[in-house]
Amino acid sequence: MKKFIVITLVIYTFSSLALGQKEHAEEVLKETLVSLEKQSWEAWKKRDGKFFQEFLSEDHAEIGFGGVTNKITVVASVASPNCVVKSYTVENFKLTTFDVNTALLTYRAEQDTACNGNPVPSPVWVSSLYVRRGDHWLNALYQQTQSIRKDDADRETLAVVNQLFDAMRVKNAEAIRAVFSSEGQLTSTQRRAGRTSVRVYSGEAFAKLIVETKGTLKERMYRTDAIVGGDLAFVRGRYGIYVDDRISHCGMNSFHLMRTADGWKIVNATSTIELEGCEPESKISPAANVQNWPSFRGPQAAGVADGGGAAVSWNSVQGRNIKWKAPIPGLAHSSPVVWGNRVFITTAVNIQNDAAFQTETDSNDPVPENARYRWMIYCFDKSTGRALWRKIAHEGVPRVKRHLKASQANATPATDGRYVVAIFGSEGLFCFDMTGRLVWKQDLGMLDPGLHEDAAVQWGHSSSPIIYKDLVIVQCDGHAQSFLAAYNLQTGRRAWRVERGEMPSWSTPTIVEAKGRAELITNAPRYIRAQDPLTGKELWRFANDDLIVQVPTPFVAHGQVFVTGGWPGGRSIKVFRPGGSGDLSLPAGQNSSTQVAWRLERGGPYVPTPIVYGDYLYVCNDKGVLSCHDVKTGKQLFQHRINEQGGSFSASPVAIDGKLYFPSEDGDVYVFKAGPTYELLSVNPMGESLMATPAISNGIIFVRGQHHLFAIEQKGTTQTAKQSEKQSANRKTR
C-alpha cells in the first residue's frame, strides 16, 4: 500500500495573481504538488511515519487494495517494517483545480514493493486530493487503482454515477443511499467572499438534503473520465445541476468507487460548487452521460430521453443512420430496455414451427398453442450490437393461449443495473444478474387475461414488471386470478400480495414519488388505484366505470399522473395529483377536484400509452388519429390522421430533442415536430411489423421489429461527441 510522507511548507497566494496569470499559477501549483508527491514516495520508502502526521489532514481517508483507512492507521502503517519498497517511478501527472483551496493530482505509478511478503499490484493509477489549510497544503484523500482499463467496468462505474443522478431526479432517498457504501460520504467545496467553505455529508445526510430540495432536480455530468483497476475505480468530470430546468450551479465531480458483494459503491464523492460560467443544459454533450431506460417506456413510463441528437430519418435497407441491426428469433412484442452499455430484450421461440401472427384482424378467437416454446432473454452490447449473452428462462408448451395479434412474450423486462427481471406470463417470473446467471424464478400461477365475458377466450399476459428499491412488482389481472404482488429483488421471496377482484387488464404499473411518499399506480377496468409500493396498502382509488380491455400504462409528467384507456376506444383521460386518499371518483358532470387536475370525457386511446412532452399531451389511438392537448387544461389543439391511407398503431410513442416518434403496425416510424401544430418530419419504413415501443439512450433509438432489433443513430453523432471530449480533455492538460 502506497504511503505518504511529510509535507513541506508551501505558501501560495492566489490573490496576488492577475487574471492573465491564471494558467501560470496552475503550472506553479502543479509543480509544487508534484514535488510533494515525489517526496512522499521517497519518504515512504524510508518508513518515515513522523512526517505523515503533518502531511495528512485530520479527516484524511485512504482508499487502497485493503479497503478504507484513516489518518491514524496510515501514520502507524508507514512506520511499520511490513512493507519493503525497492524502487518506484511516477509519471503522467495531471492537475485539476477545484478552487484556490482544493486541487486533485492524478498520475501513474510503477513500483517494486512487497507488503508482508506479497507483491503490491503495479502499475497503479493514483488520485491525490489536496486542500489548503492556512498556508499549508494537506492531503485529504488518496486512492490507488490498478492501471488497467476495462470497458465493461468503465461503463458499470459510470452507470452507478448515473444511478445516483436518476435517484436524485426522482428524490428517492433509499436509492440515493443505496449507491453509497456504508462509510461513503460526499464533500462539497464553495468559494465565497474570498473564503472556501467545506461541507461533508454522509450518504444518509446527502439523501435527506436532496429529498428536501424544492423543485425538479436534474444533474448532468460531461467530459467524464473513468479509470478502473481491480476492485477500485475513479470517475471525474464537469457537472451541472438544473432545478426546474434552470441552471442552479455547476463544478467538478470526483467519484471514488469500490466493488463490493453488492456491486460498485461510491466511497467518496468530492464536488465543487460554482455559480458562474455554467453551461446551459442544451450545450452539454450527452455522450458522456449514460442514459438508462430501465423498464417499459423508460423512467416513470414517461417515454422521454432528451439529449444526443437523435436521427430524424433513416433507411433500414440502405443502412443510413442504422448503427446496428441484430436478428431476434421467435415472436415477441416486448420492448428493449437499456442499462449502461447493455440492451436487454426477451423473446419466445416456437421450436417446432413459426408462430402464427397477424396485425389486421377482427377475430377475438385465441390461437391454440400445442407446440413447445423456448422463452429467452438476450443481452446486447449497446455500441456494437454484439450479443453478450443469451439465456433460456423456460422451455415447454404454453399454459395459456394468446391473441393472433399477440405473442407469448409481450411483457417488457425491467432492470436496475444489478438484475434484469422478465415475466413470461403463466410460465413465471425470472430474475437474472447482469452476466446472465439465473438468480431466482417464481411460478405466478395461471395468468389468463382475455375476453371479459368469456374465460375460455385467452389473449395472453402483457403487463410488464417494474423495480422499486429492492422490490420487483407485478400486476396480474386475468380470469383465473387478479392480484398485485411484490417480490424481493435479490431472493425472489414474496414481500406482499394484494387481491384485486379486477377484470382482465394488460396495463403496467407506475411509481410516482411526491409529498414525502411513493404511490404505486395501477390502471384496470374497475378502478384506478394507488397503493404503498412497500406494503401494498391501498391509498386511494378512482372508479373506472367497468371499462373493459384496459391496456395503456399510467405515466408521470409535470409531477402528475396521466391515466386513460379502455374499450371501446375514445374513453376518458384523467390527470391525478399525488397525495390523495380514499375514494377520488368524480360524479357525472364534474371533471376536476382537489386531487383530479382535469378529466376529459372522451379522447383516450385503446392500446397505445399517450405521451407528454413539454406543455402538450399527445394521444394516438389504434387507428392512427393523433390529437394534441394543452397539458394544463386538456384543451384539444389539433387532431389529425397520421396516415390518410389507414394503418394501425399498438406501440406507444417516445420523444427526444423536440421530436415525437410513432411506430406503426405496418412497419413505419413517423417522426413529428413537437408543438401545438401538426408537422410531420419524416416517415421511416423498417421493413417489418412494429408492435413494440422503442427505447432511447444517449440519442440512440432502439426499435424492435418482428424479426430484428435496430439501433438508430444520427451519422457522425458518436464521432463528434468523442472529438469534443478529446478537445475538452486537451484543454485540461497542462
What distance lies between the first and last C-alpha atoms, to the nearest angstrom?
28 Å
Q: Pick out the low-confidence regions.
A: 1-19, 148-152, 285-289, 717-734
Total domain count:
3
CATH topology (fold) name of the largest domain: Methylamine Dehydrogenase, Chain H
Second CATH tier, the architecture of the largest domain: 7 Propeller
Give me the Rg, rounded.
Answer: 28 Å
The coarse overall form would be: elongated
User: Which bin fits the share of residues in helices?
Assistant: 10-25%
What's the CATH class label of the largest domain? Mainly Beta
How many strands in all? 48
Number of helices: 7
Percent in strands: 35-45%
Category by helix and strand content: mainly beta
Mean pLDDT: 85
For the structure shown, list the relevant keywords.
Nuclear Transport Factor 2, Chain: A; disordered N terminus; 7-stranded mixed beta sheet; 3 domains; single chain; 734 residues; mainly beta; 6-stranded mixed beta sheet
What does this structure look like?
The protein has 734 residues and is mostly beta strands. The protein has 3 domains: 1-147, Nuclear Transport Factor 2, Chain: A; 148-284, Nuclear Transport Factor 2, Chain: A (Roll), CATH 3.10.450.50; 299-719, YVTN repeat-like/Quinoprotein amine dehydrogenase (Methylamine Dehydrogenase, Chain H, 7 Propeller). The chain is built from 7 helices and 48 strands. Strands 1, 2, 3, 4, 5, 6 and 7 form a 7-stranded mixed sheet that branches. A 6-stranded mixed sheet has the order 9-8-13-12-11-10, with helices on both faces. Strand 27 and strand 28 (494-499) form a beta hairpin. It starts with 21 loop residues before the first helix and ends with a helix. Residues 1-19, 148-152, 285-289 and 717-734 have low confidence and may be disordered.
